[in-house]
Amino acid sequence: MDCIYETESIDNNETLYYKVHKQYIISSKVIPNAFQTKGDGMSTDWARYCTPEETRLRNGIAKDNAIVSLHVGEVRIERNLEVVHKPEDFNRAHSLIKGIPIKDPFKTEVRRHLTKIHKVIIPLEIT
After folding, report:
1. pTM
2. Closest CA to 44 of 8, 1, 98
3. What distance in Å separates the CA atoms of residue 108 and residue 104, rounded to the nearest whole number?
4. Are the CB atoms for 16 and 76 separated by under 8 Å?
5. Fewer CB near the last or first residue (10 Å), C or N of the chain?
6. Mean pLDDT of 27-54
7. pLDDT tens digit sequence for 66-103
8. Which region holds residue 7: left if phi is over 0, alpha if psi is between -120 and 50, else beta?
9. What is the spatial distance between Cα 76 and Cα 110, in angstroms, rounded to a whole number?
10. How far apart are CA 84 and CA 8, in angstroms?
């Protein structure tokens, strides 16, 4: 069955939102292991079609997650990383970062790159 939304091209000047679970935040800093590939790639939301809060409320306990932004052009600077729009019926914003290597040393290198370029949009709630 086809998705109700068309796949679009994401320009380099766009922004992605990514949810970071509290286990990947140490002393208010996002650690490289936060950037995880599951299935086809690292699941993100395209800012054109959602807000940071909508990303935070998707799946899981919102207060246990921070939201970071990633500038698409900066993501694509790293070796072989690809940003693709992959909308789902319940999430038009859904997009993937593809190409994060499975094995070290390149996996660690790419994760460090993503750690350097992210910006915290919604910090983790301290309780």
Report:
1. 0.94
2. 98
3. 6
4. no
5. N
6. 95
7. 999 999 999 999 878 999 999 999 999 999 999 998 88
8. beta
9. 11
10. 8
